[in-house]
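ok here's the first one, seq then struct tokens
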Amino acid sequence: MKAENGSVTPLMKQYNVIKGKHPGALLLFRVGDFYETFGEDAIKASKILDIVLTKRGAGSSSEVALAGFPHHSLDTYLPKLVRAGERVAICDQLEDPKSVKGIVKRGVTELVTPGVSFNDQVLERRSNNYLAAVHFGKTETGISFLDVSTGEFITAQGDKSYISKLLQSLAPAEVLFCKREKETFIENYGPDFRYYALEPWVFNHDTAYESLTRHFKTASLKGFGIEGMAEGIIAAGAILHYLSETQHHEISHIATISRLEEDKYVWLDRFTVRNLELLFPQHPEGVPLIQVLDQTVTPMGGRLLKKWVVLPLKDVAQIRRRLDTVEALTKHSGLLAELTQHLKQINDLERLISKVAVRRVNPRELVQLAKALEAILPIQKALALSDIPALQRLAAQLAPCDGLREEIRNVLKPEPPMLTNQGNMINEGVNAELDELRSIAFSGKDYLAQLQQREVKNTGIGSLKIAYNKVFGYYLEVSNAHKDKVPASWIRKQTLVNAERYITEELKTYEEKILNAEERIFTIEFGLFNDLVLHALDYVAQVQQNARVIGIIDCLSSFAGIALSSHYVKPDVSDSHVLEIKSGRHPVIEKQLPLGEAYVPNDIFLDHEAQQIIIITGPNMAGKSALLRQTALIVLMAQIGSFVPAAAANLGIIDKIFTRVGASDNLSKGESTFMVEMTETASILNNLSDRSLVLMDEIGRGTSTYDGISIAWAIVEHLHNHPKFRAKTLFATHYHELNQLAEDLPRVKNFNVSVKEAGGKILFMRKLVEGGSEHSFGIHVAQMAGMPNNVVLRADEIMHHLEKEKVSEQAPQQKMKEVPKSNYQLSMFELHDPQLVRLKELMENLDINTITPVEALLKLNELKMLLQGKSVKH
């Protein structure tokens, strides 16, 4: 915007300088009582926030788009901008406009991004809000995650597939990487993440190492177990740099950094996390596992459970400790109910104490913090008095924080205002001057009445009165009849016709107090509140520890609750190589069944010696995919410490779960279904271990039948004959030819999901039985799906022709050449359906020359009943 002489106004000069320092951010520029946006920012903001877009300097050569909102509405509008993926620079006035001549000094006080926010409207209570940084090294890739709202800081490194799995599992809100590596990042991990590219110099090992040791005040990083993780250190250093760049300097709550060790957790590649629908459904109407498992009642528990689900344990002792604790809680239902009741009273300890650390906590949140700490006391007592060693150990890790609780209770009112400038947040009796000022400010009339009565008594002037005007302030008025009684210490200010007006030192002092009382009250209250926040800073580490322990108690209580309500059993987890599930159920599907319909359970047995690979045949819709998924989910649930949906489960530790289940086309990258299927399968075969669980569903269906059979056959042979590893495998297929493998390979067994055929219809029994299946019933399924009748009839005709020719030595191309030509007048009786064959027989045996009208009607009814699938009595 330009001034009248054509030059840019001082305000816009200032704006352009600040905007130039943050070119990638949407700048909220404080002007008086409004935050304004200009130019492209204004156009964006008006669309996202649905606010009016106007113009500044309309009609002039310096016309600029303008959109703004009142400063007190920042908490309403800021989350909308951040959720829309914008990085938002908040530019505030750094001086009081009343005390400045000319332009007010302004500067960016905070840069809020999708991955760096403390705003409750931006954050989801039950999910972490991670900022991630990725660094591509020569041989390995480093990655780091920080949730600035909780202080959790982790780092890891590994190959690109491991990094991909972590990105998908932890789902960061924003990812940082080097400008030079943008193409590499998008090629490996896709364009769907919100990202920000940093300058190459940020990704330097020495710079990052120094940054981390300076922040943690340590000489090295050995104590965190990350000393040798060069790429992980660089990624973590980039995150600390970004915090500084976004004006986040108060970060004492980030007190440690931990290593995410790949070897400690079950390998779940990104395909498996997606295919098993652990955290997110693949379809809008789907239900992920977490939705069924999560009965946590605190935000800390909800966030921790998500991490447990994507990071199942491999350590038998640790898994058993969790399972034993869950078992103990299921046997002490009274204790479980008591714990749940107290846990419900605990607010978000982790994020509340983080707000204390960054000086963004408000009075109401401090009271919530005190209430949460108070609710910990009965939990600690109940756990300590239980006879469950694991719970007693957890009780010992809880810190009561008595000093902090008492200080908050003593200083703050039970229901203080949200904002510090609203006043009336400090208790009576905390500060004598504050109490006096409140008395003056809110009891002024009483004070003046007392003063007037006292002076009437002292002077004997009965008509004395106290009044106020803007010129003199407060004054005493005495009629001329009594002016000889006025004390010498009074100072005359004005003479009227019938009276004199005076002031006294006491009245003047009172006047100054009452006029400055509100401002002074605010200053004192704000100072006392800040002292309280500083006092709370001493408890950050203790409260963070409490939050971690409460999260664990909440998760284990949730497991116990769902075990009781859903009839889950404790699995026997060991170092054996046996995977045995008796009457296993799918934890998600069984919850979605219509009322009164029971889930059909199934047994699974896999080991290294007799039954390493099960080939499961059966028609589509019979439940093969559900069986595969439920096996993986039962293993996963057991290894996170949960009871499982089965009658019994004996599970040897699984260290990798691979799934090739369901279509997952990546057509946007120009890859076909078959190409994606083969890529995922190759990833499985190249990463096998001796304790892997491999689930493959309909491998090879994306290509021609004979190609598909050949590929599937070769994969089964490879898994069986692997020189090092005997990966336990469930292989669902519609290629019945694969049943032949069981005759040649000793550890391959055939099973099928049984189907009953009755009256030409098929009934899905959903029961796994030994032996292969001969038919796919695909045409029946097509008929059930509402396929046009002429298509169903033609498909059946072709199938029967091909099945007849199976015994011959003809080449497949020759078989197809001899398929009967399509005839749209095809007789309904050519469909090989037992009902229609019976119908044909009845019609052929009918003598229409001798039948009576009544017999004809009866015969017609019989034919109708036969078509409806009802039995006909003879």
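and now the second one, same deal
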Amino acid sequence: MVADGTKTQVVVVGAGPVGLMLAGELRLGGADVVVLERRTAPTTASRATTLHARTMEILDSRGLLDRLGPVPNEVTGHFGGIPLDLSLPGRHPGQWKVPQARTEELLHDWATELGAVVLRGHELRALEVTADHVLAEVAGPVGHLALRAKYVVGCDGEDSTVRRLGGFDFPGTDASRELLRADVAGIDIPDRRFERLERGLAIAARRPDGVTRIMVHEFDRPRRTTGEPGFDDIVQAWRRVTDEDISGGTPLWVNAFGDASRQAARYRDVRLFLAGDAAHQQMPIGGQALNLGLQDAVNLGWKLAAQVRGRGPEGLLDSYHTERHAVGSRTLGNIRAQALLLLGPTETGPVRAVVGELLARDGVREHLAGMISGLDVRYDVGPGSHPLLGARLPYARLLHGGEGGGEPAGEAREMTTPELLRTGRGLLLDLSGDPAHADRTRAAAGPWSGLVDTVIATHRGAGADATPDGALSGTDAVLVRPDGHVAWTGSEGEPDLVTALGRWFGAPAAPHNVMTSKKRRYDMGRLNGRTALVTGASRGIGRATAVRLAQEGALVAVHYASGQEDAEETVASIEKDGGRAFAVQAELGVPGDVHRLFVALENGLKERTGSTELNILVNNAGVMGGAAAEDTTPEQFDRLMAVNAKAPFFIVQRALQNIPSGGRIVNISSGLTRFANPQEIAYAMTKGAVEMLALHYAKALGPRNITVNSVAPGITRNGNPAFGIPEAVEQMAAMSTFNRVGEPQDIADVVAFLATDDARWITGAFIDATGGTLLG
């Protein structure tokens, strides 16, 4: 439910495919979004049925193709009704037949799983734009409500309310020709592919489910000027053009579209934006309209999310209009040309013949296929002439980890370039194979580790299903925007990497006060692209560990049992310094604890990364005993065992469903397993169990290249009132060889080391982090 007066960051108007794609992109970027849709239920009609190669690449980069399932592929498309081979190098040549209703269902499920709120039966009535917000007045099922947002985006089609209320100019031409179309069941007519007959154009295609989609245009008949057509209009036009009778069929859907061509003069007006058909009206020839709109959404989503989260560099939002208006203008131009060829009278025959001849010439087919598929889109991202600059990141198979490539030795993982974009973050990909170059790449990108994943890999070659010219071969590094377009390659004439990072991802994060040494600044980014769960992370060692892992680039789940405010403060501190984190709540040591923990964890991970993969687990949560053995009750003992030993065991057991090869498990033990304290016998027993958990699981998980280790803190400042008594602190400090008490950061640094690839050869170990207390 959204209450009257609710604040959100972005309101998207229109829950069609474009609006839902944008909502998912905004959520990937961490922005709150509410989607308004005047329809009360999703559409069952499918005006558009074609997804082109670039759109399929985008869906792959978000992990959505597996969910889409197998879909028919047709390599041959058309240009104005003239057959055109659309195949170009890449994973998804040609066009893919997906009903719009299925595309909408797929994107709705994805966006809402990520946390987007979709309000159906809600119609935008008014907009009030101020210096710092937009107030949207909405009519809903239970009356009017007001939504206050930083930005509003119109994805509400050709008759866009946002465009009208926002006063956007929409120049262009009205339709002079129209194509009637319908999905009809129960008819048996020949398939016709752009068949030009004496009186008009006829198209018929029977689907596997027995339904036939028909389209018909009469050359000399004026366009209707009022309302949607009825089925009888289709029947009569079809009879006049083909002499066939389809009146006995059952219409499932009927409509018409014309050759109107309009484009908003601007796609942005301060706090209002337009995308999809709200920004451009065109004849949907060859399915270009839907694909153009989905690509608008992917271009805008990450930029708008960055802006509302306070990290967007100057000019980033304006680049949406600059980049997509140019693409839209070019697309509308090719559609107008196709409309003349497709719907023009017999006099266009010679032109069609000449175009057909040109398609057989070298380069012409590829040029038109690139334009229709969206694969040739290239943005002006700055100086430089590298062929990849501004273009989409091509598909390639890579090896990450293993020997070489600047990565420490370990098990190499094969991955593809689309998989590297699943998080919706920026990507800095180093393919140099030079450890020194990789180190410089990491160091330069370190301050942006909260926004950009740095991946060191080796190129396995383009292969038959990628660019044949090996576009990535010979390229040492590329910086890729979240929309998949290359923003920097490091070639001659381009700005340096730091400048490029600043242009697209804003100012670098200020270093945290515990990251002041040259060594630590150098190390930032060792955990880029990885995820971590730290239990008991709202304060003390857990909090310091969460902060430290985030500084290394990990997305950290901050677990807490009851200290919600402290956990949220930990998350805020991490995000303030450019890191990524989210809080998860679960009381440990009670029935159902692990289940609740992992439900929250997996939801949080999927919302932010599109995956439930967990790379690092730190079992830190625990409770102290504080009672002599003779005073310990069975209830106290059971509580200690449940929280300190049982919970870590079953957390590890459950986490192994999520932890991939190369994962890290670190258990926080205690120096009391090696140093006698009669006041904490029961507590020390639980920590001894934790050490056994590490020892035996290390052996079991070695074949999966997962390390498991124990870290044993000594006396560490933990907020206990005793640390406020100078005399007590002096006595405690004297137990350490360094004559001081431990700080949470001391332990966090040890854990961070064990979480990185630098500790790949350490497993089953007991790490003494007591500051020399155990030396005697």
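notes on #2: Residues 402-410, 462-469, 511-524 have pLDDT under 50 and may be disordered. The chain has 21 helices and 36 strands.
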